[in-house]
Amino acid sequence: MFIFADDHVLPKGWVDRADEKAGINKLIAHEYGHCIQSLILGPLYLPTVGLTSFIWARSARMQKRRRVRGIDYYDFWCERWANALGERFARWR
Known about the structure:
It is a single chain. The protein is mainly α. The protein has 4 helices and no strands. It has helices at residues 20-41, 45-58, 60-69, 77-89. The chain starts with 19 loop residues before the first helix and ends with a helix.
């Protein structure tokens, strides 16, 4: 598995410019967490995590809901789970 990331792909609010390497590592751990989710769920990954994550990220209604209620993108169940898995299994902790 390969995950490529640089400072241009860091989500807003994840890290300030003084700590870009930590932010990149956090992003890579998050994406690695999605890979682990895929291994755990197998063919159920796309209809559960993939679809709900896509709707959470791209739906205008969900974007408005996050903005109005002040909900962080990574508070959604599958994103929070990806963070937890990635941080648990990442080697650079």
